[in-house]
Each structure stands twice: as structure tokens, then as C-alpha cells.
Amino acid sequence: MLYTPPVARLVEELSKLPGIGQKTAQRLAFHLLRVPKEEAVSLAEAIVEAREKVTFCTRCFNFAQGEWCEYCMDTRRDPSLICVVERPQDIVAVERTGEFRGLYHVLGGAISPIDGIGPEELRVRELLERIRKDDIREVIVATNPRVEGEATAIYLADLLKPLGVRATRIASGLPVGGDLEYADEVTLGRALKGRLEL
């Protein structure tokens, strides 16, 4: 045994976090043991509080501390415009742009037959119910530009067309500061198709 049992347990639990390997878990554990006790207790309390108080918004399935999330409660947002994302953290990325003022819908993943995830495992039915019930004029599909995200976008487009709602897909292309010679063919092709007037 390399550590005392409490330290070994702390390292083991930290290593279960996404993106945290054994060495990083060890560094975090040693850091937590060096900080003042109040800081470590504050972190533990924040984790417990988040687990106890945070649920899913009953409207869009974002994280919420009540029935609806902050975006669904915001009366200044355009309720006729829905941006569909895979996960709640994707909302943060869209919000950082400052360009979107509509509402969201979190699918809870993307279609991935290899992982056993079909449309039934996602919140597609709930999206369709919102569209039928509310006065939605456009659905922006902002799934990730991977095979699974593309399959999900195509699937949603096929479902949305008969409903008479405008279905759009976020553009994808080259990152700012990127070099053309390092871009893959699909990304460069999309950048060309999604070109804008100067």
C-alpha cells in the first residue's frame, strides 16, 4: 500500500473523475491535504450541495435548482427559437458567444448504435412535444460535429420537416487562428459551403 487508507480512498475517488488519471488524482489529493481544513470542507460541502439541490429542468433538461432552469425562466429570451444540444455543458459554450437569445433543449447524448444509444434513449420525444405544444418557429441543431452528432442532426431534421418548423444546423469550419494546411477535408469542405459574403 502506497498511502494510508484515507489517502488511498481519496486518490481512488478523484481518479474516477473524467480526465483525471492516477497521477493527477494523487496531486489533487496531496493538494487537498495541504490546504486549510476549511477549504477542503468547503469543497466537500459544495459537492454535496450540488448533488442534493441540482436537478433537471422539466422543460429543457438543463441543470436547474427548481422546476425550470435560469434560461427557461428568463422572459427576455425568444421562446420561438430552440437550440438543441447534447449535454448541459454545451449550453455554456453557446452562451459564451453572446449570440443566442432563444431557449434550449438538452437531448442527453447523441445517437450511437455502437454504444447502444438510439433515439429512444434521448429526449427526442420531449423535443417533439415542445414543438407541437409551443409556438416554435426554428430549431437550431447544435450537436457536436462527430459521426454521432451528425447522425443525430440528420435524424432530427427528418422528424422536424413534416412539422413545418424551420430546422437549421450550426455551421462548422476552421477555428480562428488555424492554418488551412492542417485542416481535415471535411472541416475545410464545410467552411467552404458555409462561407459568408464579405
Query: What's the alpha carbon Rg, rounded to whole Å?
Result: 21 Å
Major sheet: arrangement of strands:
4-3-5-6
CATH names the topology of the largest domain as: Dna Topoisomerase Vi A Subunit, Chain: A, domain 2
User: Termini separation (Å)?
Assistant: 64 Å
Low-confidence stretches: none
| Largest pleated sheet | 4 strands, parallel
Structural class: alpha/beta
Strand content: 5-15%
Average pLDDT score: 92
Question: How would you explain this protein's 3D organization?
Answer:
With 198 residues, the chain is α/β, with parallel strands linked by helices. It folds into two domains: 5-53, Helicase, Ruva Protein, domain 3 (Orthogonal Bundle); 69-169, Dna Topoisomerase Vi A Subunit, Chain: A, domain 2. It has eight helices and six strands. The protein has helices at residues 5-14, 22-34, 37-53, 70-73, 88-97, 124-133, 147-160, 185-193; strands spanning 55-56, 63-64, 78-85, 102-106, 138-141, 166-169. The strands form two sheets. A four-stranded parallel β-sheet has the order 4-3-5-6. β5 (138-141), α7 and β6 form a beta-alpha-beta unit. α1 crosses α2. The longest helix is centred in the first third of the chain and has 17 residues, at 37-53.
What's the arrangement of secondary structure elements?
Layout: H1 5-14, H2 22-34, H3 37-53, E1 55-56, E2 63-64, H4 70-73, E3 78-85, H5 88-97, E4 102-106, H6 124-133, E5 138-141, H7 147-160, E6 166-169, H8 185-193
Parallel strand pairs: 3-4, 3-5, 5-6
Antiparallel strand pairs: 1-2
